Amino acid sequence: MKFIPTLALILAFSASGLATAQTAGMSDEPGAGSKATTHKTIAVVKGVDTANGKVKLAHEPVKSLNWPAMTMNFSVKDPALFDKLVVGKKVEVEFVQQGSTSVITAVR
């Protein structure tokens, strides 16, 4: 008859371990535990779409992502950055990947 109390004890420990595993890495702080890597590249602005928060850049290779040089669209995090994103201008941009979207966070 010791089987049932032993089984109950095993299940209790298993349940607490599962709860701990499910909350591991969780935090009350937004963005905690998800450090976005910032990437940099030099690019020429090819197009600007302020209405949709996008810019088209012809950029040099991005070594941190193993990307070749290419022309692509980026989202722009802060609308104030559009002041520095003028068609034909050569700029240095910093960006992060948010899923499959590249988001510009700084322009120099």
From TrEMBL:
UniProt keyword annotation of Signal present: yes
InterPro entries according to UniProt: CusF_Ec, CusF_sf
Superkingdom, taxonomy of origin: Bacteria
Record's keyword annotation contains Coiled coil: no
Signal sequence interval, chain numbering: 1-21
Keywords: Signal
Name of the protein in question: Cu(I)/Ag(I) efflux system protein CusF
Organism listed in the record: Nitrosovibrio tenuis
